[in-house]
């Protein structure tokens, strides 16, 4: 039987459902590469995903400080809400990082939403809703992590693997390009990154046996500049780490689904890659499986991989390495720090990928050992069909995709730590396009959980720890020059911690768990802290004991 493709027709413009003026000041017209290079010097704004190219998530604002954080109050709340059916059978979560440019905020939501708001009052200026097919295949929830702004436009990816450019003054679509094949299981959730006159995106969908890739797109036209696959085909460097016969490399995973960092002096983009596919069945993909679970350093003009470092060779535990690659300097050396799902902190020379040292950052690690000098020794893995294997950390990782922050004045990384185990039972499945390709049944521990915000110096020494009450941390931290670290918990608390001691200075119950990245900015000389709040999606697999918690869908902004 032949099944013909039926065009669903033109999508309805959701902006027509509102009588709002659909107009915002033209603040992004002046955002370009030169301005983003100096992003931290204009800390009244938050103009790119991490706040700067280096991934530190550190703001120079200090109006809110350790002495007065106790006086923080809600300034305004934007209720994003969720109406009607959403795409895929998975649930949604509010995972974005709000961008702010000269008093205008741009924030993405689940299911193709993007809003422009007055950053002082929370008034909605315009909104955009992308038409995401209801039957789109999504691995790990209906989410989006953020947008990019430049040249009068706002850029976002969609759950059905599209890249769209919108007019930043009214939310009207300027152009749209396809990132991946949604029918094969590809999707997208990454916040694009503007570099020079193009922007970089990555794909998602490793749990469906797709081949990961990183792409560069022209800012004005959307024309594709280059594409780099993160799993090499036969004959390419790294292909020797895959079977030399068969098609394992074609469905090898390694997706880049969290925004990378960039060193303009070296002209290198540092991209973290995801797990190999299938996640837990390594017999069908013998070898180290490059460039999965790695950082790849790409020449941004060509996409050529200049060097790589693999954090978990031949991964059998679903230990993606997509989370941030924080760029910093120590003793005159250009370094990169990475806190991996496998429970270890890695510091590399970012000019060439040479390992400096490795340190564990979570209490319970029994899947294996990585020594200080990088020797990799696995011990427990689901290698026998139908036989359960319990290990720490579970596949959610000792740190999920959510981000650490780094205060260079204190030389401290503030890490959201999850100490949760899981049991994986290998279940071999034949590959079928568009179907889950995990290779195991997984059950996350419902009790015996722990978590913290932990502060580590760049040598890997823990300086303090703020412990949560029987649950992991699952949201990004943010550091400020006011000697404050902000972080949200699964129970809904939004915390302000003392950057040098970890003492709790203030908290606010937001009514739903946190799985997003806060940002900070000023308008008319007043500092604000913004955090999207909305529990759901893959979080229900990380903390199954909280699966019944209310999802929430609010952007909450605080000030003194």
UniProtKB/TrEMBL annotation:
Sequence ranges assigned to domain Pyrrolo-quinoline quinone repeat in this UniProt record: 46-354, 469-529
Enzyme class, broadest EC rank: oxidoreductase
A molecular function (GO) term: alcohol dehydrogenase (cytochrome c) activity
Enzyme Commission code(s) on record: 1.1.2.8
Cofactor annotation: pyrroloquinoline quinone
Pfam family membership, one: PQQ
Keywords of the record: Metal-binding, Oxidoreductase
InterPro entries, per the entry: PQQ_b-propeller_rpt, PQQ_MeOH/EtOH_DH, PQQ_rpt_dom, Quinoprotein_ADH-like_sf
Recorded family membership: Belongs to the bacterial PQQ dehydrogenase family.
Record protein name field: Alcohol dehydrogenase (Cytochrome c)
């Amino acid at each position: 039987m032949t099944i013909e493709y039926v065009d669903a027709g033109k999508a309805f413009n959701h902006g027509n459902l509102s009588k709002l003026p659909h107009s915002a000041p033209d603040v992004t017209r002046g955002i370009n590469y030169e301005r983003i290079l100096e992003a931290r010097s204009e800390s009244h704004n938050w103009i790119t995903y991490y706040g700067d190219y280096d991934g530190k998530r550190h703001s120079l604002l200090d109006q809110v400080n350790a002495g007065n954080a106790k006086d923080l109050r809600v300034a305004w709340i934007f209720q994003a809400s969720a109406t009607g059916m959403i795409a895929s059978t998975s649930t949604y979560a509010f995972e974005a990082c709000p961008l702010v440019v000269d008093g205008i905020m741009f924030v993405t939501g689940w299911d193709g939403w993007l809003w422009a708001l007055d950053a002082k009052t929370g008034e909605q200026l315009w909104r955009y809703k992308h038409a995401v097919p209801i039957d789109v295949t999504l691995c790990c929830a209906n989410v989006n992590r953020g947008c990019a702004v430049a040249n009068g436009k706002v850029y976002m990816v969609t759950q059905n693997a599209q890249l769209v450019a919108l007019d930043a003054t009214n939310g009207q679509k300027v152009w749209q390009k396809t990132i991946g094949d949604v029918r094969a299981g590809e999707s997208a959730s990454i916040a694009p990154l503007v570099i020079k006159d193009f922007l970089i995106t990555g794909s998602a969908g490793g749990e469906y046996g797709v081949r990961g890739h990183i792409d560069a797109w022209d800012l004005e036209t959307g024309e594709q500049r280059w594409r780099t696959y993160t799993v090499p085909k036969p004959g390419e460097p790294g292909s020797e780490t895959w079977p030399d016969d068969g098609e394992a490399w074609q469905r090898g995973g390694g997706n880049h689904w969290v925004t990378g960092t960039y060193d303009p002096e070296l002209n290198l983009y540092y991209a973290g890659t995801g797990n190999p596919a299938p996640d837990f069945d390594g017999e069908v993909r013998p070898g180290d499986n490059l460039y999965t679970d790695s950082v790849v350093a790409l020449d941004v003009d060509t996409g050529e991989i200049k060097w790589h470092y693999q954090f978990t060779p031949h991964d059998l535990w679903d230990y993606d390495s997509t989370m941030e690659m924080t760029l910093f300097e120590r003793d005159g050396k250009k370094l990169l720090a990475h806190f991996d799902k496998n429970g270890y902190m890695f510091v590399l020379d970012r000019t060439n990928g040479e390992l400096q040292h490795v340190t564990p950052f979570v209490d319970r690690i029994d899947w294996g050992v990585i020594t200080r000098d990088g020797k990799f020794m696995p011990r427990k893995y689901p290698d026998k069909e139908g036989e359960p294997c319990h290990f720490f950390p579970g596949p959610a990782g000792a740190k999920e995709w959510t981000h650490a922050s780094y205060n260079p004045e204190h030389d401290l990384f503030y890490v959201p730590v999850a100490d949760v185990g899981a049991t994986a039972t290998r279940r071999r499945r034949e590959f079928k396009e568009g179907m889950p390709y995990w290779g195991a049944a997984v059950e996350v521990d419902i009790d015996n959980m722990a978590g913290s915000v932990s502060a580590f110096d760049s040598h890997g020494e823990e300086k303090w720890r703020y412990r949560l009450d029987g649950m992991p941390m699952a949201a990004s931290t943010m550091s400020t020059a006011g000697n404050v670290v902000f972080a949200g918990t699964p129970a809904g608390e939004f915390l302000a911690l003392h950057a040098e001691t970890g003492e709790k200075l203030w908290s606010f119950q937001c009514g739903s768990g946190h799985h997003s990245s806060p940002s900070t900015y000023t308008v008319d000389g007043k500092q604000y802290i913004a955090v999207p709040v909305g529990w759901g999606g893959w979080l229900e697999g990380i903390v199954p004991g909280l699966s019944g918690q209310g999802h929430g869908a609010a952007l909450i902004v605080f000030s003194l």
